[in-house]
Structure formats: structure tokens, C-alpha cells
Amino acid sequence: MQPEEYRRTSYEAWGSVAPGWDRWQARIEESTAPVQDWIVRELAPQPGDTVLELAAGPGGTGFAAAACIGASGRLIMTDFSPDMIEIARRRGSKLGLRNVAYRVMDAERIELDSASVDGVLCRFGYMLMADPAAALAETRRVLRPGGRLALAVWGPPERNPWIAIGARLLVENGRMPPPEPGAPGPFSMASEERTQALLQGAGFTQTRLEDVPVRFAYRDLDDFIDFGADTGGPFAAAIRSMSQDEREAMKQQLTRAFAGFASAAGYEFPGAALCAVAS
After folding, report:
1. CA gap 232, 13 in Å, rounded
2. CA distance linking residue 239 with residue 248, whole number of Å
3. Beta-carbon neighbour count of residue 12 at 10 Å?
4. What is the distance between the alpha carbons of residues 48 and 72, in angstroms, rounded to a whole number?
5. Which positions ≥6 away from 253 have C-beta within 8 Å?
6. Which of the 8 DSSP states describes residue 127?
């Protein structure tokens, strides 16, 4: 798929699941809390700082940073989806945050002056961008001298069975094309070598990477499928296109594939994020 076509389909996919991310936000934040904690700790925002969040979705990690920078600081929360940003705006209003500006913005073309922010954070965004190298170069451009980037992407498939197994079955069942080598996707930056190379190519000279474990839990297979259909971006469209009979057939496949993750409460999956801090 060509980059511009990918950008168009990605824009449509993430806009379509914005309401689902709103509905499932509590579950998402609970499951990925260790990643959020790591990002905010390593970014270490200070009172009065200007912090930029890229690919913010409906908000979350940036709101935690907003609490650190205080009334004298400013969080610029951005996403390329207007639907996501509108949800983030409503959530921020409910939280009573007055130090947040909400902007629709493409991370590959950051509409800010050079050297204008003290920190940048991005949770699970760069891996899904058509040109992560361009986005990271733009990130480096807008950072002030001494500023930091803290990011998270998903680690390798074998450490994230909650994504990998479902995606594999969708491909095997003809619901999705197999991933192209090097194409954007949940595992496109899963190797430390690739992420390190992208950071260095963007001009970051000091980098540190760390694996951060997470956990996803589902009551049953319907809970797992509903979550994917509501939040899965490109995966969501594939799930939604299934007939009821096709869903039931996939549930039978998942029953066998998920046997090792069954628990008294349903299903529990390990997960691993690859997190990085760079300056």
C-alpha cells in the first residue's frame, strides 16, 4: 500500500473507532498503566514546561503529564483524528484541566516552531505512522536543547499474544492481507535495533530503551472480540465485516489458540511494550 493510501485508510479507521476508545478507555488505561507511568517518569516534566503529546487518541498519558507541569505549564495534546481530539477535549474538561490545548495535527508535519517544547510524549503512535522517520525528525526539530522524548511501541509478537494471535487468524481467514515487510503496524518498531536506528537517524544522540510488561484480561471470547471490534483500528473493520456465523467460527479457533491463557476469570494475556527515552 502506498503511503498516501495508507494515511487515508488509517485516518478513516481511527476515526471510526474513536467512540469505542471512549467506551473502553478505563480498560485500556488499566491495562497499560505501567507504560503510562514509565513515560511520565522518564519524561520528567517540570512545573512551567511545555509538553507536546503526539497521537494522543482520546487522552490519557498527556493528562498525567499535565498534572506535573502545573498551571504555569502547557500541554499541547494532538492527534490526526478530529474525533479523537474531541473526545480528549471532553475528557480534559471533565477533569478540570486548564493547562491543555487540543489540536488536530499530523505527527509527520508538526505545526509548531522549532525548539518550542520541552518534552514530547507518544504512546503507541510512531509504529502506526506511514513515515515514522519523518515524525521522529519533526519531533527532534520542535524540542528545545536538552528536551526529551519518551515513547512506547509494542514489543515483538511472541510477547504480545493478545494482538498477534487474533491478527494471525484474521489473515488466515482472509479477512486481512498479510502484513508487508516494513509496513506500519503494531510490530513495525518491535525490535530495539529498528527503534534505536530511527531515533539516531532523527538526530537523537542519547537514548535508552526498556521493556515494560503489561497485562490484558477479558471475561470471555465475546469480551475479547467486542474489544477488538471497538478499538482495533484496521483490525476493527475486519471484525465488524464478519457475519454472525463467521464470528462463531472464529470463536472456535480462538478457543483452541487461547487455551494456554484461560483462567478462572476468563482469559489473561501477558504483553510487553518497548519504551524509549531520547534527547
Report:
1. 9
2. 12
3. 12
4. 5
5. 169, 173
6. G
- Burial degree of 244 (CB within 10 A; 0-12, 13-18, 19+): exposed
Q: Which domains does the chain have, with CATH numbers?
A: 3-156+184-215+271-278 (3.40.50.150)
pLDDT digits (tens, 9 = 90+) for 47-62: 999 999 999 999 989 9
pLDDT digits (tens, 9 = 90+) for 78-114: 999 999 999 999 999 999 999 999 999 999 999 999 9
Strands 50-53 and 74-79: parallel
Residue 3 is predicted with a pLDDT of: 85
Has residue 66 got a pLDDT over 80? yes
For residue 60, give the C-alpha cell.
490519557
| Distance separating alpha carbons of residues 54 and 161, to the nearest angstrom | 26
Tallying the residues shown for the chain, one arrives at: 279
Single-letter amino acid, residue 72: S
